[in-house]
Amino acid sequence: MSQYQTAGTNARLKVFALLAAQGVPAAEADELVAALEAGSVAGAQSQVVELDGMAPRSRGPVFEDGWDAGVRSLSEALVGIADRDWSRRGGRAAGSAELAVHLADVRQRERADLVRLEQFVRTNMLPGTHPHTTARRRVLEALGEAGGLCTAQTVNGDGDVVICTLDAGHYDPENRPPFKGGEPGGWHKADASIWNDLGAACIPHAAL
Fold it and tell me: Around Cβ 173, how many Cβ atoms within 10 Å?
């Protein structure tokens, strides 16, 4: 449910901002948003009420009584939520404006933190990785710069899925590796693994 709560908060902030931009007084904006939210709860309450008497007959009369009692309790709770939301409508537009300022400040700090983190990764981690290694690929993925790498996959001797670390478009099955010095020729490579697309556990670049 958390994603719906976040989406609802963001939508409420946007509605208040749009209404304010159109010159709608804060009190009227409160009324409109409160009416929408109370109406949503009332809509949920009406659906819950329809469950009264809908208990599975096969579960017996005791289960049916408990089911109906639960429906009535939930229905009463939803009515109370709608009443509470409506009664608390005053001042919400002003509160939302303050919250919007706070969120903007938080997001600005988060962006600054991300810039510092990216600079740290680029300066301290990327230079310490070797070309054509999984460690380097992961750093490039964290920086959002792995889009030009091959995406062919295989499973190594330890059962781990490994992804090619060479540039996309490198694959040439006819250019067989010399099997010395870790040179892949035109085949795929990730750390000590060198492979072509013919193995049963392989997923070619073209298939992704």
Answer: 11
Q: If you average pLDDT over residues 101-108, what whole number do you get?
A: 63
Nearest-angstrom CA–CA distance, 5 and 15: 15
Residues 40, 138: Cα–Cα separation, whole Å: 45
What is the Cβ-side half-sphere exposure of residue 39, based on CA atoms within 13 angstroms?
Answer: 6
Helix (H, G, I), strand (E, B) or coil at 154: strand
pLDDT, mean of residues 162-186: 85
Where does the chain have alpha helices with state H?
2-21, 26-49, 61-87, 92-120, 134-142
Which of 78, 77, 9, 21 is CA-nearest to residue 44? Answer: 78
Q: Residue 115's Cα: distance from chain center in Å? A: 21
- Report the sign of the C-alpha dihedral through residues 10, 11, 16, 19, in that order: positive
Helix (H, G, I), strand (E, B) or coil at 149: strand
Residue 89 to residues 26, 76, 92, Cα–Cα distance (Å): 10, 20, 6
Q: Taking residues 27-53, report their average pLDDT.
A: 74
Tokens of 29: 């904006």
pTM over 0.85: no
Backbone phi, psi, residue 135, to 5°: -60, -40
